[in-house]
């Protein structure tokens, strides 16, 4: 069950919208399924009209108006509770019980030991995407004129939703249970993007920052790549310092006459905060000095302090080394324990960054590569305490992101891209098997959907290639028949078979006891003192 919280100061506007036909005429039979006793005494579960909606809004607002209480940030608290489309629909009674339990646990009723808030829960059919849901509207002014606290309400709503999932036998969201998931996009951002026919700016910026972070070998290069990619970048300094950068924010370059909209790294993704990005870069005084110089140049909108490899030519022969390194990484991941959260999160982060870089280079508009990057990014955004301060980056992945971002079509022929895609598919297969082994079946399905729904479309634009290419040295990888099997076809013993389409996840786990598998060295190191 997915909660989505907003705040406002117009109870009438919210209730009229909930009782209306909706933006896409998707609202059907809007009615109350629950509410506080004073409102439910006057209103039942009949279909709401505009007059009914305004009357309910007046009831919600009564304590605030009568007692003259103002709430900074808005006195109307609104949360939608939504099920996945494939979960089906609940009854009104079930939603009513869930809504009542939800507001109790959120501290809005007398169950908190305080005066109650007025609230209602409205149901008006499934969403445009087919999700069964309700809307909970709460007045944050209690009956005695005190204000309800909404501190940390989003985290509380996630926790309460998880508890109610178990209580009512609903599907438990693995992203909440295991502490990963992408940052939410606000409804206003979605509405603006839909109006413009584009994706939300936050999503675009996150993909670009993830690509530039993966392609960069140090912090200074990251700053230059962001600027070279058309982003506005500004540092956040330590208090009273200009030589210690502790954070950053980015913005898309706005049209003439408009102000940029800035997003901090943490608002783009848990894995895109500056400390998390730094965990894969060198930490030396020289690197620190070079990075500060680039941050200062970005802040003043000056030329880069010391341009680096991002402006150089790429040797096409580097593809051979890159493919070998990525192949070795795939082999190593098969021996990583399934409970090594840090190693699997790192793989997801870097794989997502590679597809993001590929998308930036080849897709004029976000396409299947961008979709694959987004799907994989959710598994890299684990809580900070679940990853080490310092991790060992995978050279092959950083090199791949750099090559895909900088190489022209003549230097990155379709055959090389096809072979590279095959190798990346095998990494995804390892990730799919890992999610299955730890019983994260929703996550496994999402990885499989990224392959079947997005990357197959990419593979169809590339030529078939033999598994064994001259660029790959003998002995660097298992044989073709060991590594690849087309769905529905058994490998031919001793034969080198061409790959017509990349392999798809089968859902089967390459089982070996996790206790018998060696662990990748996480590269623990001292915290960065800047």
Automatic annotation (TrEMBL):
Family matches, as Pfam families: Relaxase
Keywords for this protein = Plasmid
Return the Polar residues bias intervals.
507-517
Domain (MobA/VirD2-like nuclease) ranges: 72-170
* Region described as Disordered: spans on this chain: 487-530
Q: Which InterPro entries match?
A: Endonuclease_MobA/VirD2 (IPR005094)
Superkingdom classification of source: Bacteria
| Record-given protein name | Relaxase
Instruction: State the species of origin.
Output: Aeromicrobium yanjiei
């Amino acid at each position: 069950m997915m909660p989505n919280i907003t705040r406002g100061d117009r109870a009438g506007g919210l209730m009229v919208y909930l009782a209306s036909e909706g933006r896409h005429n998707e609202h059907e039979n809007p009615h109350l399924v629950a509410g506080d006793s004073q409102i439910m005494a006057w209103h039942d579960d009949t279909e709401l009209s505009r007059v009914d909606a305004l009357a309910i809004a007046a009831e919600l607002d009564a304590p605030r108006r009568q007692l003259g209480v103002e709430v900074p940030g808005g006195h109307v608290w609104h949360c939608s509770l939504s099920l996945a489309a494939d979960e089906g629909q609940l009854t009104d009674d079930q939603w009513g019980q869930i809504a009542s339990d939800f507001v109790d646990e959120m501290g809005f009723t007398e169950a908190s030991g305080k005066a109650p808030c007025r609230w209602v829960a409205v149901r008006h059919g499934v969403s445009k995407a087919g999700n069964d849901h309700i809307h909970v509207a709460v007045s944050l002014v209690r009956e005695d004129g005190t204000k309800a606290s909404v501190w940390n309400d989003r985290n509380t709503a996630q926790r309460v939703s998880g508890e109610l999932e178990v209580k009512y036998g609903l599907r438990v969201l693995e992203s909440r249970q295991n502490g990963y998931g992408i940052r939410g996009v606000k409804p206003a951002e979605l509405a603006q993007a839909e109006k413009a026919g584009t994706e939300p700016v936050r999503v675009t910026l996150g993909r670009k920052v993830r690509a530039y972070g993966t392609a960069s070998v140090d912090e200074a290069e990251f700053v230059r790549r962001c600027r070279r990619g058309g982003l506005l970048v500004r540092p956040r300094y330590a208090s009273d310092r200009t030589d210690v950068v502790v954070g950053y924010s980015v913005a898309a370059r706005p049209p003439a006459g408009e102000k940029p909209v800035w997003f901090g790294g943490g608002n783009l993704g848990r894995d895109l905060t500056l400390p998390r990005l730094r965990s894969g870069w060198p930490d030396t005084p020289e690197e620190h000095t070079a990075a500060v110089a680039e941050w200062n140049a970005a802040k003043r909108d000056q030329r880069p302090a010391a341009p680096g490899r991002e402006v150089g030519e790429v040797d096409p022969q580097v593809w051979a080394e890159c493919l070998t390194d990525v192949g070795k990484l795939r082999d190593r991941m098969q021996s990583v324990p399934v409970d090594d959260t840090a190693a699997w999160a790192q793989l997801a982060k870097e794989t997502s960054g590679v597809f993001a870089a590929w998308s930036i280079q080849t897709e004029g508009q976000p396409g299947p590569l961008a979709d694959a990057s987004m799907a994989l990014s959710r598994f890299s955004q684990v809580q900070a305490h679940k990853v080490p301060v310092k991790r060992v980056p995978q050279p092959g992945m950083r090199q791949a992101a750099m090559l895909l971002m900088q190489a022209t079509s003549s230097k990155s022929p379709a055959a090389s891209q096809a072979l590279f895609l095959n190798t990346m598919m095998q990494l995804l297969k390892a990730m799919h098997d890992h999610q299955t082994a730890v019983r994260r079946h929703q996550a496994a399905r999402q990885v499989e959907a990224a392959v079947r729904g997005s990357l197959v479309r990419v593979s169809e634009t590339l030529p078939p290639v033999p598994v064994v290419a001259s660029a790959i040295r003998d002995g660097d990888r298992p044989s073709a028949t060991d590594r690849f099997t087309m769905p529905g076809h058994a490998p031919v013993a001793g034969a080198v078979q061409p790959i017509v389409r990349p392999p798809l996840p089968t859902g089967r786990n390459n089982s070996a006891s996790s206790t018998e598998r060696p662990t990748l060295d996480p590269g623990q190191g001292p915290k960065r003192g800047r």
